[in-house]
Amino acid sequence: MRRFYWPDITGKHITVTGQEAKHISRVLRMQEGDMLILFDGSGIDYYCTLTGNDADSISVAVVEKKESGKELPVQITLCQAVIKSDHLDYAIQKCTEAGVRAFVPFLSERCVKRPDVKSAGKLVERESRIAMEAAKQCGRSYVPKVGDIVTLEKAAEELQNKNGLKLVAYESEEHRTIKEALREQRCREIFLFVGPEGGFTREEVRLLEEAGAVSCSLGELIFRSETAGLAAAAMIAYEYMGH
Predict the structure, then answer these.
(1) pTM: predicted TM-score of the whole model, two decimal places
(2) Which end of the chain has the least Cβ crowding within 10 Å, N or C?
(3) Where are the alpha helices (DSSP H) in 101-162?
(4) Rg of the chain's alpha carbons, rounded to an integer?
């Protein structure tokens, strides 16, 4: 059954406009009586019947709603250093597909891309759209939130108030793998920090450790920044879904 994103779902009768309506009516040429699924990003699927089809809007009646049941048994927040735009696009898209629940973009010492206030707002808006499109494509009904860009110091400060397991992916960590870290402390919420193209400095890792995080390696190989979060999310999902 076809799935479509619509952020404003209230009541039993819904009118969908804009690009989604055009896709339903003009591209797919769906007709009255056809079934479709709407989701608003909250984790709920709305099973609907198409009741009206105009040029620029379609009307549907909600028949049933239920939780999608496709979320991971662990909530992963990826704190991702800001990297080049196309690489950040990739990280947000693929980590959404891997089940990441939220993103916190941050700036650290070795970040190459350092957007100003105006471009930072546009970047967050762009990545939020990519997360929505990725959620739609992969069948998720929960759309991950992309937070505002903060400094690493601010992210560390906020980390102190969070419950859950806090991890730093650090290529120089020699004593703890992510597998060992996950088994040392079993939590239903995980905060994972991934550095920029040049990685974290030792001082930055120490800052995060003082905020309650533990550093861990993702294995013998060194991942690029845009793939480290994806690899770690897959490792976390495997570890949790196997229990």
Answers:
(1) 0.92
(2) C
(3) 117-138, 152-159
(4) 20
Listed in sequence order, the residues at least 6 apart from 91 whose beta carbon sits closer than 8 Å to its beta carbon are 78, 80, 83, 225, 226, 227, 229, 230
| Phi-psi map region of 140: left, alpha, beta (phi>0 left; psi -120 to 50 alpha) | beta
Residue 204 has which token pair?
A: 């930055």
Angle at CA of residue 191, ends 112 and 217, nearest 5°: 70
Contacts of 85 (CB under 8 A, 6+ apart): 113, 123, 126
Smallest Cα–Cα separation from 192: which of 166, 171, 170, 159?
166
Contact 236, 74 (CB under 8 A): yes
For the chain, what percent of residues have pLDDT higher than 70? 99
Distance CA 103, CA 94 (A): 12
